[in-house]
Design goal:
alpha/beta, six-stranded mixed sheet, 4 helices, 9 strands, binds inosinic acid, binds magnesium ion
Length: about 180
């Protein structure tokens, strides 16, 4: 990738920076209202949700805590390997907390399903899921998000934290990658 023009690998912009701002603002407002009497803990799933998390938490206008968890569900390709492994666990106990899992995109649902099971066993008061993007037609397990920023078509998207082979996370918008990039 060194010296390459990453913007040239994008087929088209799917969601602009302005649209992302609006989506995240609306989610933050809803969450602020729903959790105003709760002990909110935002759990960001690294690395894909890092930009979403940073923007979303600033649109949440009530007291909250944050924590991070890293799992691996994908290799370097665009398809799920089916293997989910904890790489970094949460720092603190979640007992009695109202957990809101912050995820970049729900695809097959396997990653979040697994994380949800692990966290449920630690006795939080509640667990809900907030995903920026949802690809419902790709679902392989029975899992629904409580907060969804936007549905997206069944195409591989990058930017705003989402990667292909660990690149393109720093694109400020959501773009569809040219298929020539991953067939190379
Ligand atoms: P799932 O377990 O199949 O739901 O996969 C969820 C994870 O796959 C997300 O957290 C992303 O890291 C990755 N993923 C799924 N679809 C895309 C995509 O279109 N672009 C980038 N990453 C994706
Ligand atoms: Mg990823």
């Amino acid at each position: 990738m060194i010296g390459k023009d990453m913007f040239n690998d994008i087929d088209r912009v799917l969601i602009s920076e302005d649209e992302l701002t609006k989506i995240v603002k609306d989610l933050g407002a809803k969450i602020s209202e729903d959790y105003k009497d709760k002990d909110l803990l935002l759990v960001s799933i690294l690395k894909g949700s890092v930009i979403f998390m940073a923007d979303l938490m600033r649109e949440i206008k009530i007291p909250c805590n944050i924590d991070f968890m890293a799992v691996s569900s994908y290799g370097s390709g665009t398809k799920s390997s089916g293997v989910v492994k904890i790489i970094k666990d949460l720092d603190a106990s979640i007992e009695g907390k109202d957990l809101l899992i912050v995820e970049d995109i729900l695809d097959s649902g396997r990653t979040l399903n697994y994380i949800r099971e692990i966290l449920l066993a630690r006795n939080p008061k509640s667990i809900k899921i907030c995903t920026l993007f949802d690809k419902p037609e790709r679902r392989e397990v029975d899992l629904y998000a409580d907060y969804i920023g936007s549905g997206v078509p069944n195409e591989f998207i990058v930017g705003y934290g989402l990667d292909y082979d660990e690149f393109y996370r720093n694109l400020p918008y959501i773009g569809v990658l040219k298929s020539s990039v991953y067939s190379e």
